Amino acid sequence: MTEExxxxxxxxxxAIVREAVADLLRSVGLSVKAFGSTQEFLHSKRPNAPGCVVxxxxxxGASGLEFQRTLTxxxxxxxxxxxxxxxxxxxxxxxIKSGAIEFLTKPLREQELLDxxxxxxxxxxxxxxxxxxxxxxxxxxxxxxxxxxxIIALVVSGRANKQIAYGLKLSExxxxxxxxxxxxxxxxxxxxxxVRMAGRLGVSAEES
Length: 208
Fold this sequence. Notes:
The structure is a single chain. By secondary structure, the protein is of the alpha/beta class. It folds into two domains: 7-132, 3-Layer(aba) Sandwich (Rossmann fold), CATH 3.40.50.2300; 143-207, Winged helix-like DNA-binding domain superfamily/Winged helix DNA-binding domain (Arc Repressor Mutant, subunit A, Orthogonal Bundle). It has helices spanning 15-27, 38-43, 64-73, 89-97, 110-141, 146-156, 161-168, 172-186, 191-201; strands spanning 7-11, 31-35, 51-56, 80-84, 102-105. A five-stranded parallel sheet has the order 2-1-3-4-5, sandwiched between helices. It is elongated and about 75 Å long. The two termini are 37 Å apart.
């Protein structure tokens, strides 16, 4: 399936800065949606595509840093590039610690902004791919029976067939059959492959 074109969201109440940033990003072929407030952004329809937010740190009402928390709480996991008219070191440290890609001061250096936006888009693309992989693995895991889920947790914790059979009061042959079914349903090529899958899903022997 073809991935939608990445989108950069520019949020700044200063129309001149907002349009200047949007024009710069568009000049290198990026798709841009510009907003004068965080509320405009929240009420807009966002495409299902990799993205990045260029956010003014000083906005009317809630600050950019507060809005960064709002995004996280709303499950909007777009990377943020902060722009600010003031070189506030403590604020920049807080922003980066909260997961921002970059904290840039105005007047903006064009290449720094472009590099930060591209880094944000790549981070979001990687996150989306990882989330898609985990969702697919979860679908496979959901096809396992309750007994198979017990056994996969024990297998990936390093238990041998004999130990699993003894613990679950099953024959060793029955455990082997279940293991074979698990490998087929999870589409695992090897035990190492299965362990990696289980790790991504957070499966552990405690669940058995």
